[in-house]
């Protein structure tokens, strides 16, 4: 199965990229690089893709396990290489779960299944970066 996207230059350093679902996203760069920050940075968007992919897995798995959380967020930090072409050589994903009576074992199992088995973006990152994951539980 192949995905196709189209990315259109919108002027200056701004680009709009579509998605097979029909949605689109704007990409831009910093003023120091000629942009206006009118969109997401392409490299940082990769980190968002990583979080989104894993997050979708985890919520799907938790739903199948009939396990709920009040809130869930992921913080992703990527370290770029010093030399061009700059790419993320290490990435840390912190999973934060919030709620009362959190089933930590089931939640951790869902995280592990995403990280180790289901998240294709995670697997792509592992091809070029050291990936570290941590899970945190916050009782309300």
UniProtKB/TrEMBL annotation:
It comes from the Bacteria. Gene3D superfamilies: 3.30.300.20. Pfam families: OsmC. This is Protein YhfA. It comes from Kordia antarctica.
């Amino acid at each position: 199965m192949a995905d196709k996207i189209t990315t259109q230059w919108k002027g200056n350093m701004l680009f709009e990229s579509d998605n097979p679902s029909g949605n689109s996203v704007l990409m831009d760069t910093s003023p120091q690089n000629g942009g206006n920050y009118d969109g997401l940075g392409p490299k940082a968007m990769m980190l968002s893709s990583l979080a989104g992919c894993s997050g979708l897995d985890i919520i799907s798995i938790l739903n199948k396990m009939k396990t709920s959380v009040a809130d869930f967020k992921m913080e992703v930090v990527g370290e770029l290489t010093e030399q061009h072409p700059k790419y993320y050589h290490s990435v840390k994903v912190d999973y934060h779960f919030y709620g009362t009576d959190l089933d930590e074992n089931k939640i951790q199992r869902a995280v592990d299944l995403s990280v180790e088995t289901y998240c294709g973006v995670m697997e792509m990152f592992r091809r070029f970066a050291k990936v570290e994951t941590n899970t945190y539980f916050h009782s309300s």
